[in-house]
Structure formats: C-alpha cells, structure tokens
Amino acid sequence: MIIQLSKQITEEQKQLVFTSIEEQNCKWREIDTQLGSYLLVLGKIGFDIRLIGNLPGITDIHRVTDDYKLVSGKWKTHPTAIVLDDQVSIGAGDLTVMAGPCSIEGEEQILATVEFLEKLNIRIMRGGVFKPRSSPYSYRGAGIDGLKLWHSICAPRGIRIISEVMEMDQIDAMYPYVDIYQVGARNSQNFNLLDALGRIDKPVMIKRGLSGTIDELLYSAEYVFSGGNEKIILCERGIRTYEKAYRNTFDINAIPILKEKSHLPVIADPSHGTGIRSLVEPIALASVAAGADGVIVEIHRTPEKATSDAQQTLDFDEFGRLCAKARAVYNLVAG
Amino acid sequence: MIIQLSKQITEEQKQLVFTSIEEQNCKWREIDTQLGSYLLVLGKIGFDIRLIGNLPGITDIHRVTDDYKLVSGKWKTHPTAIVLDDQVSIGAGDLTVMAGPCSIEGEEQILATVEFLEKLNIRIMRGGVFKPRSSPYSYRGAGIDGLKLWHSICAPRGIRIISEVMEMDQIDAMYPYVDIYQVGARNSQNFNLLDALGRIDKPVMIKRGLSGTIDELLYSAEYVFSGGNEKIILCERGIRTYEKAYRNTFDINAIPILKEKSHLPVIADPSHGTGIRSLVEPIALASVAAGADGVIVEIHRTPEKATSDAQQTLDFDEFGRLCAKARAVYNLVAG
Amino acid sequence: MIIQLSKQITEEQKQLVFTSIEEQNCKWREIDTQLGSYLLVLGKIGFDIRLIGNLPGITDIHRVTDDYKLVSGKWKTHPTAIVLDDQVSIGAGDLTVMAGPCSIEGEEQILATVEFLEKLNIRIMRGGVFKPRSSPYSYRGAGIDGLKLWHSICAPRGIRIISEVMEMDQIDAMYPYVDIYQVGARNSQNFNLLDALGRIDKPVMIKRGLSGTIDELLYSAEYVFSGGNEKIILCERGIRTYEKAYRNTFDINAIPILKEKSHLPVIADPSHGTGIRSLVEPIALASVAAGADGVIVEIHRTPEKATSDAQQTLDFDEFGRLCAKARAVYNLVAG
Amino acid sequence: MIIQLSKQITEEQKQLVFTSIEEQNCKWREIDTQLGSYLLVLGKIGFDIRLIGNLPGITDIHRVTDDYKLVSGKWKTHPTAIVLDDQVSIGAGDLTVMAGPCSIEGEEQILATVEFLEKLNIRIMRGGVFKPRSSPYSYRGAGIDGLKLWHSICAPRGIRIISEVMEMDQIDAMYPYVDIYQVGARNSQNFNLLDALGRIDKPVMIKRGLSGTIDELLYSAEYVFSGGNEKIILCERGIRTYEKAYRNTFDINAIPILKEKSHLPVIADPSHGTGIRSLVEPIALASVAAGADGVIVEIHRTPEKATSDAQQTLDFDEFGRLCAKARAVYNLVAG
Fold first, then answer.
1. Residue C133: closest C-alpha in chain B
2. Which CATH number among 3.30.420.10, 3.40.47.10, 3.20.20.70, 3.30.70.1140 corresponds to the domain B2-62?
3. B291 vs A282: CB contact, 8 Å cut-off?
4. pLDDT tens-digit profile of D74-97?
5. CA D3 → CA A229, B7, D16, D17, D78, distances in Å?
6. The pTM is what?
C-alpha cells in the first residue's frame, strides 16, 4: 500500500499516521523524494484503509498488489514525465531522441555530433566515458576528463548529456557534468549502485539486464525510487536468446508491458538491442509503434572509424532518415 | 549457384548444360516449380560461370553464398508476391491481414466472422481444424468436416482460407478446401511434411519453430521450394526465452532480417507471438513498422467463449481499431 | 484419476463402472495397452472414489494431480522396466548402454561396430537410416534398405536395434527390422506420429524437443501411452540456450526431475547433448551420477571419416574407457 | 603472449625486455601477482619469439591464442591449486566441500553449523551477510557485524569463511574476517569490483553470471588475475533458460569445458544451480562426476526456518549423505 503524504504534513500528524499503521500490526517505510513523500505499508493483506483514510496530512491511499510498489502503474494514473528544462522532457508527449557515439573520443568528434544534433533539433546526446568491457584489455573509455570536455561543449548550447555510471565512486565525480545517469545492462542489478543513485536528484536511466526479466527491471527502478529519486527512465536494450543472427534479441514486447505495468517512461535502444546496423532503423520504428517514449541511437560521423561498436553505429544521413520516420510514426500512433 | 532455365529449353540443350556442369566436377539438381525451372549447382566454390553462361536455354546465373539457395534474397532482386487471385495477394505492396478464430467452432461463428471480415475488406480468414495440443486430452479440432463447412461458407464470398496441416495424410484431404496451408511451429522441421508440401501448387505459410533459428526457418522454406513449390510465406510467431511475462517472446528482429536474407513475404503473428491480449495491437503495429508484409490475428466475436486461446484473442472492435492503425503505419513506412 | 481394470473384467462389469462414472457427471477414456487396461477419468476434481472403489473388475484407483496421468510417477510405485528379452532390459537395475554411429553407412562399418559392442557386452546398437537434416541438400540416410542390411547383421547375434522414425508411413516399413523406435527432437511434438506409435507394441524412445520443456516431454509420452503403448523411454539430449561454447546445452537437471515426476526410464544422450567430443565422457558420467538409467553414445571406428556428426563421435578406445567408468559410477550411485 | 619473468630479474634486464618488445611494435602490460611476474604482449600475431627468448630474466614464454590469457589453460600445464593453509586447499587433488546457510542468522545457527561441519571434516563454511536481493524491501543480510560474529566463532577452530562481497567499499571492511571473497552472479561483470579484488591477496570465487557465457566468466577471472591476484576459483551456479521446472538450469557442461579452457579450479553450486532441494544431491554428484574440484551447498539445521532460500537448503542428514557419496564419486573418477 502506498500512502501519499501532504507536503504540509506536521510532525505530529505524521506520528498519528505511524501509530495508526502500527496498531494494525503493519510495518511502514517512509520515502522522501524530490517530488513527494510516501509511506509504504508492506507485507499486510487485510489492512483496513478506512481507519487511516481521513487522517490529516494524507493526500491519497493506493492499494498496489504488485511486489514492486512505487514504480507500479497501479497507483499513478498519469504517466510520469521527466522534465530536464523547458525544452527537454521525457515521456511528456513528444518523441524523445538521444543520440551520439558509443565512446566519447575527442573535441572534434563531439563538436561534429553536437552540431548535427542541433540541426535535427535533438537535445540529448549520449556517449560513454566509462566503458564496461568483457575483456580487461579492451579500451575502457576517456574517463572523467573526457566527460568534462564533452560537458564544456554541450552545456553552452543547452545539449543535455546522458552517460553511463559504473561505480558508486563515480556518481559524485560525474555529477556536475552529466544530466542523466545511465545504469548499464551489466549493472542492472548492482543494488549498491542503485541505492546510491536513489540519493541524488538527477534522472537515472536503467537498462534491462543482459537476461533481466521485466520484473527485475521494475525492482531495480524501485531501488532508485525508494531511495528517494523519482526521476527514472526504463530502457529496453535486447536480451540474450539462443538466436545467433543478431548480437542481442531486441525484446519489443517489453515496451508495451513496461508501459502497462509502470508509470515510468520507456526508451528503446535498437543499437545495442540488435548489434546490426541495418536493423537499427526498423527496430527503432517498431519500438515507437509499440509505444516507446523515445529511442537512444549510436551514431558517428564515420562509423567505420568509431572506437567501439562500429558495426551497429549509423552515420548521420542514416540517422537523419530514421529520425524523420520515427517522428512520423510517433505522431501517428500517439495521435 | 542457381541457374535459371528458359521454359523453352529443349531436352538437348539441357543435356549440354548438364554435361558442362559435370565437366567441372560439379553436381546439379534440377528443380521444377509452378513458376520456373532451376538448376542448383551445389558444393563447389571455384565454378567458372563463363563456361556455361552463354549456353542456349539459360536465362540467368546467380552465385548465392548462403547455404540455403532458392529462398535467398541474393539472387532475386524483387520481393516475391504470392498471388491468390485478382484481389488477394501477399507481399505485393499492400498490407495483408489474415484474421479469424483459433479454432473453427461452427456455422454461426464462421458466418459472424466472415461478415465482419468483409466489412473491413479483409479477404483471408484463419482458423484451425487440426489442432496440435501438448496434451493428448485437449480438444483436437473440428477436423476435415469442420473445414468443409467453413469452405462452403467462404468460397461463395471469395474469402480465402488459411489453416494448419499437421500430417502428410491431411494434405490431399484438405486440398479442395484450403487456399493456404499453414505449417505450425511444432512442425517447422517436420521435413517429410515440408517435402510433401513442395509437391503441391498451393501457397504454404511456414511458422518459425518454438525455438527455431532464422536459418532453420529459411532452410525449411528451402525444402518446400526445392520440392517444387515457390509459393512460400514466412511467419514470425514468437520464440522461447527465459522471460515469463509473456507466453512467447515475439522476435521483432526476425522481420527485417528475414526481409533482408530472403525474397519471401513475411507475416507477423502477434497473437501467438505474445499470448497476451493487450500486447496484440502494439506488437502488430511494431511488426508493420519493422517491415512485415502482413499480420495474422486471432479474433472472436466473444473471446471469453472461444474454444481455445481466449486469453490472446481480440474482439471485433479491438481488431477493427488495430486494423485501421496497422494500415496507416504500413502506408507511412512503405510509402 | 486412473482406474486400473482387471484383465478378467467382463463386459457387463465394465458397463457398471462406466455408468457409475457417468452418474458423477464425469467423462472417461478407456485405454488398453500391451500390459494393462485403464480408465482415465478426466476433468473432475470432486470425484468420490468410494462410489466405485468396490466395483468388481477394478484392481486399483489412483488420484493423479498432474495434467499428464499415465506417465506420472504419482500412481506407479515402482519404476517401469522395458524388457526386450532375457538379456536386454532398460530401467531394470543395470546401466543400459546404447552405442553406434550417427548414420548407418554400410556392411563393413556395421560389422566392426557390432563386434566391438559384443566385446563390451553391449546389446543395443544405435544408428540412423532416416536423418532429419536442416538443409534439404544434406545426406538423408541409407533408408529402409540400410535398415534391412543392419538388421540382417544384428539379429543373428541378438544385438537389438534402435533407430529414428520420422514419419507415420515409416512405422510399418521399419517394424520388422527395428527393436526400439526413436522419436527425434524435431518430432518430439509431432502428435500424429506419437499417436501412431501408441498403436504398436515395440518400445519408443522419445527425445526431448530442441527447446522442449519437461512437461512437454511427459505429455508427448502420454500421447504414446494413452494410444496403447506403455513401453516408453525418455531421453534428454540437450536444449537450446544462449551459450555458444557447445552445440547444445545438456540439461543434467532433466534427469533427476524426470525420474521424480515419472515412472519411465531415462536415457542420456551426451553426444547430441553437447556436440563436443571431449565433453561426451564427463557428461555421460554426470548423467549416470544424476540417476540416468542409461546412455546412448555416438561411436565410430574412425570418427573423422563418419558420414555425419564426426565432431561429437568417440572412437572405440575412448568409448571403452567411458563405458567402464560409467558402469562403476552406476554401481556406486545405485548401490 | 605471456612472458614469465624471473623473480630475480633486475630493473635493467626488464628494460631490455621492454625495449625488445617495443622494437617489434608491440605493446606490453606488466602484471605482478602474489605468485609471479608476467608480461602480457597484446594484439600482435607475428611476434618473433626468438628475438627475446634468450634475454636474461625471462623464465618462460607462451603463445596463448585465446583472448583471455592468464587464466587460459594453454600456458599452464598443471591445474592451479588455491592453498589456504596446511589442511585447506582447493583444486589440489581432494574434493573441496563448502557448506553453510544462505544467510548468517546468529550465534546459535553458526555454532550448530560449525560443529556439524567439523564432524564431516569440512573446513570451509559459506554464508551471506550482504545479500543481493531483487526487491529493495527484502532482507539484506546481517552485515559486517554478522561477519565479525561469524569469524569469531570460526577462526579459533580453523574453519575458513567464504562470503559474498557486493561493492568495492566492502572489500577492506571484510578483509580481516573473510578467507575467500565470493563474487555473486549479479556482480559477475562488475568490472570495477573485479579490478579492486585483483589488488588484494585473498582468494576470490567468481560465480558465472545469470546468463553469463563461459568466455565472459573467464574474462572476469582475467580481470582479477591481471589486477594482480592469481587466487581465483570459478563457480558454475546455473543459468537462465526457458525451462520453468527449476529456478535455474544448472549447466553441467560448464564444468568440463572450464577445466579444459582454464587452469583454475571449478566449484559447483547445485543449490542455486537448481533451486530445488531434491535436485541438490543428484546435481552435486553429477558435478563431481563431470570433473568439478568441489561443491558449495546450502545447508541449515532446520531448512524450513531459514531466513532465505529455504526451498533449496538441505538439512544436516541429507547433506551428510550427499557428502559421503560425493567423496566416493570423486575418488572413483579422479582415481
């Protein structure tokens, strides 16, 4: 059960609510986020709502039968929009497009990408500076200095930055330079990291694990929300199956089911989701048709020269076409 | 290597071609379909095309590096359209919609469905009369009598019938009453059945196996084509993965990759592909956005009363809306 | 519910039982096998056993809560043994070993294998004459003539033959020459074939499907049993997973769980189960340690010259060592 | 390529080696572990070994074609043993058994377990104090205080402790109280954690990811080794598949293939590997038969009262029987 508390609730009124819950032999957990105050009442089925429903300081009470609570779509009637500024928001009725290289390489590359994104009126640039790599001998990214350089180019132009955080230690270091933290597939169940991201006030995009279930992704989001951060974006990026024709099997079904089960915005990553350049456009369009709030796409001025993920990276022309079609499909389906 | 032969080729000219191939120590296999004559040259890499290219009776020669040959997209520049009649064709530039109940139940049900399909200008009705069931104690379908009844209602109205064949014996029995044979997921690698379907002249729609690979589906199609039947439709219907949130995981990636690897039309089955009613529409739209030539959907006047598959069956209103949106997406993406 | 009928039950007594069941609004299905007579009462939970328990002609009554009934371990207290002759039985307290080439090639190969098996006191030889192949252009086996030749060599020596049947038509043709019919992974849910095998009196070994579930395998066995044939062997042969280090992922867990859920003997196929020669011995030993009643192994005098499956085939020496160890592990674990 | 350096190598000699490598346009990476000094030469195929083979200070040179190098079995002819003390070593020719509860609960529980382990002559106790849980609302373990209590009971008796580390921060805090760090399945690709564990001198057991590949597990081990810690144990604990009959699908194939590809010891976890109590013994025996160096098993005095994982936990009697059988199988197979 989720009890929404008024922002004006007094300490005294709160105590009254606590007592009332305890009298019914229930446990509660208080959650304060940037946006609201909640009491979670856990582990009881027969709780009598009428006994607390009229207490002062309570805004609303919702029964949520799912095991995840705060991210469930059962209590929030409107989908959540993540607002970054006047011009940039996610899940607010426009198609969100995030694009950029797999790895941040240097000034020239950043600048070329930024200028191209501006032409297409895209306001969020993706890029990796800490790269999770299967092999310890692979390139691990430009690091915090790369991020600072990137930020110095984007910030004056109002281009927002999304980048992956791999480790609790990096959260503070990245904070001034990043607008959205991305949790990668391999850290999708790094619970300490998720806990820590619950304590900051910037949006977090959580990618589904390599073989993460829908429920596990929602639980991971619940970690962040219950830690105090409501600004969560879910991302489908392909799962592992027996099929070897693509690097990952983009799971289109995840999009409508996440939209159904949760109030959080859902972004599709067709680049990692397939690992094949020619599949990026059709899967991006499919995702939008299936109800995704946006797409995140790997692009590079010269994909064949990209430091990483060249085989799934679009060039600017390909991406421009994808973008136009995706917006048309979005308007058709959402309209 | 595929050698296309002229229909006017004489027996003498043919012998000359055979000899020429054998002189290069290659084996050939002659394939005659409803539409053409082909020689497959197998198992040789260094074949010198110039030595036979100018022989009389040869229309064209194509190198195909895939292991499947005749169904490969490498030799046929235009996608194949399956033409049933003036009004009904598949893969010819219009969205194909097939719809109907999981199981054929009786006259009233058939009639209601047919009349509804006619209103939506849908010309192909699906339905099962031989039902593959995991348990021997489940209902196994209305059988050949059900098919006859169904045909007696559809034929006068020009509504075409697609229905599953489970066994070689049924091919002849079904022949007068069916317009498209469907090979189900469980028979996707029933090679004797595929061989036998290669010897008839009606279209065959092959569903991908429960955990069939893209290559296996194309090989199964190659069985039918090399048996003499070019009229083949491929169908994605969901695969088995670890995810339990849906009955099957509809593999959207299969659609663009099958279109890329093969010249055959591709149909999406979002009903079996997900097993969840609320997912049928978004996955149908996604499939069309990803390039599918059509969709096949389970519908029922009163889904909750359907003999089988009730939980994934749309009612007529839901399907009407899906249909309108799917056509709009098709026109947008294909246009 | 399973009602075991006495072999001496009269027609009159039977009618009494039927009437009694129908009076409780239940449906029954009569099943006569080589070994017994059963009435299955389906689809009723609240059936009152006392009302029929004392009727003449009833030997025993068992409630079985599984959806599969006759193959369930819930009603049969002793594991089933499949007895071929005085010396050859499966599941009767000795380790069963079946071995032979992937494909039957010719007299010399058969003879060499038979003589080797005799030295190891192995009484069942495996081999394929009808080969299910993904590609229509692959070798499809020596056919019925190959089987006849093979039988002519084995029969005088008392070596029993297990071979795959792919199609209903082949059942009768193979009958005089085969001792155990094998249903391959791709036909594991070919229900018409399973039905037909229920009507014969020779043992049937059913392989688990490429991505068949435990329940589906048991349901497939239920098809054969309810068709009238109790002589069923289950076979684990590896499943499809994301892992590419082996051709299939041998599912060791299937062995103890099948032994727990069913009374049927379970054979392990480590050759197809892994597809890697060096893994055949450890997986064979593991299977025996996990409770398998036997193993079926691909062997060839000169594996590198085998017509098919060379990469997973053991030579005679390797197999001899495997055999000795497997018997020692069996005696240790079963003892 | 791996160049083993003498411990007596002088700085001058080292420089000579570096120069020689660079002259061939190769990059090198120096790795110092508790046990040895290595130079990895990466990314070159045509390196001429003769040019450096005779340089002073070089003990041995090995070409390793795998992408992982130091953990590969291609350069180390003898399997690695992890020696904890005179009595406790892993991979040294005796079956290693680790056992204990899922979660450390309190003094009484610890003491009962320790005394039981001593009776069976088992020297390594497992237990969780930091628990990775899908839901943020589940119990997360007794924490560092639980570990201290546990250690205070085990240390005087010479019982060694293996416990999971979830986060870089915990490494130092746990250090005085833990003998083997366990990296859980969800952190199997937490590369920062693996890097950090490479900098300590206690053994690390790495569990395969939920859907980790064999190669990924070896790469994760390579992170630890190349970080400076050679004491690595690999652990198979079940993977995700479509099969729902067990919680995970224990992948028996991983055991022989890891032993083949790597020189590191391999431990089987049949408890998490199956999630089903009745399967723990057969899968443990199977693992030993397949070549595992040991098993790790969840046990509890009263499994039904365990804080977590009750459904897969053995009681003491069951485990005693398992242990005796596992040792017999080990002696048979290894002997």
1. B191
2. 3.30.70.1140
3. yes
4. 999 899 999 999 989 999 999 999
5. 50, 68, 13, 10, 17
6. 0.97
